[in-house]
Design brief:
The complex is a heterodimer of chains A (about 150) and B (about 220). Chain A has about 150 residues and is α+β, with helices and mostly antiparallel strands. Chain A contains 4 helices and 7 strands. In chain A, strands 1, 2, 3, 4, 5, 6 and 7 form a 7-stranded antiparallel β-sheet that branches. In chain A, β3 and β4 form a beta hairpin. Chain B has 11 helices and 5 strands, in the order βααααβαααβαααββα. The radius of gyration of chain B is 20 Å and the shape is elongated. Classes of the chains: A alpha+beta (about 150), B mainly alpha (about 220). Chains A and B meet through α1 and β2 of A and α9, α10 and β4 of B. β2 of chain A pairs antiparallel with β4 of chain B.
């Protein structure tokens, strides 16, 4: 049985794996997801997008800066400059969610968030779905927070 | 090995909650399994489900063979009382007890209280767990999650179901994270408000009631 919210979540996880495979030619190890009732993002860089339509909520990627710097270097062939890591992870969040529209259709809207909004504050008091992903020696997380009203 | 006959009383086995997820049974077998309460004989169930004696014996034996049921050892007093055979004419009861029994049309010494009601097997659902059950029992959260996974075949459903459960209820029971797999340690919940919220969320989201084996 696949309901819209579960289907969306499934695609986000699938495209996150795909993204890493395409960008790095190496796969991620994905841990069994958990539901976190009191989420605090680990230190690092974050990129997130707002989703609406089919389901509403937020999808956030967070990773240690050292990991993102490596990814940037692999992509650009040079060391990450100021702001590169932040841009890279924002793009990652946007690409992963936007790619999910291939399956989910235009009913899933993707918006870049207001820069001043802090993700942790937004999903405070809400359960979030945390997918820990290991790449080389690094651990990144994809965090999904859906609004309860439309799941 | 159980020498089963129609007087045999079965109950769910201690390991049943682990085995139910890996077996497939016919509707009638599930119905019987969920009705096992350690007091009724196979003959009682044969009447209830309008089954032939050989059929109920076959089902009982298959539940035993699968390890879902075990023979119940009960005292003769318990057996007689469940069969409505004890003589209560000398029993002293309060006026409240007498009135309450009268108000539902049951004579103090009547067998009607435990009367077996014939049902249509095709439409028999497993015994449902009501909020009243939750009042006295602990809910095994691991078993709930396992059940959701078995029912939906989708770990992400665990998240969307628990989104429907007010987080403050989970937090006040000391729950900060929830696994989305069955490979997690058992966690027992005795908070009745949380139990009800979880039962309602499962019912609302996937349209099923939690099975009895999630209760301890």
């Amino acid at each position: 049985m696949n309901l819209p919210a579960e289907e969306a979540l499934q695609h986000f996880v699938h495209y996150a794996e795909n993204y890493f495979m395409k960008e790095t030619w190496s796969s991620l190890t994905i841990e069994q997801p958990t539901i976190d009732l009191d989420y605090n993002a680990p230190e690092g860089v974050q990129g997130w997008v707002k989703i609406s339509g089919l389901v509403t909520g937020w999808v956030m990627f967070t990773a240690p800066k050292s990991m993102v710097a490596e990814l940037v270097q692999q992509k650009l062939g040079e060391e990450a400059q100021e702001g590169d890591c932040e841009d890279y992870i924002k793009e990652m969040a946007s690409v992963v969610v936007s790619n999910s529209r291939r399956e989910l259709g235009a009913a899933l809207q993707v918006e870049m968030p207001n820069e001043n909004v802090v993700f942790d504050k937004m999903c405070e008091h809400l359960p979030v779905f945390v997918v820990s992903m290991h790449w080389q020696e690094h651990e990144a997380q994809m965090v999904i927070s859906l609004n309860v009203g439309n799941v | 090995m159980c020498n089963m006959d129609l007087r045999t009383v079965l109950e769910t086995s201690p390991e049943a909650h682990e085995k139910v997820t890996s077996v497939s049974l016919r509707r009638v077998e599930w119905s019987l399994f969920y009705s096992l309460d350690g007091t009724k004989t196979l003959l009682d169930f044969a009447h209830r489900y309008r089954l032939k004696e050989v059929e109920i014996l076959t089902i009982g034996q298959s539940l035993l063979d699968l390890g879902l049921a075990a023979e119940s050892r009960i005292s003769i007093q318990t057996f007689l009382s469940t069969q409505g055979l004890t003589d209560k004419s000398d029993e002293k009861i309060t006026i409240q007890t007498y009135v309450s029994e009268e108000s539902v049309g049951i004579q103090p010494n009547s067998k009607a209280k435990d009367e077996l009601i014939p049902v249509d097997l095709e439409w028999t659902e497993p015994k449902q767990v009501t909020p009243q059950d939750a009042l006295v029992k602990k809910m095994d959260l691991k078993a709930v999650i396992t059940y959701i996974l078995e029912s939906t075949k989708n770990p992400l459903a665990v998240y969307t179901i628990f989104l429907k459960v007010p987080p403050h209820l989970l937090k006040r029971c000391g729950i900060k994270t929830l696994p989305t797999s069955s490979k997690s340690p058992s966690l027992f919940i005795s908070d009745t408000e949380l139990q009800s919220a979880i039962m309602n969320a499962v019912l609302e989201k996937i349209g099923v009631r939690l099975p009895p084996y999630i209760w301890h």
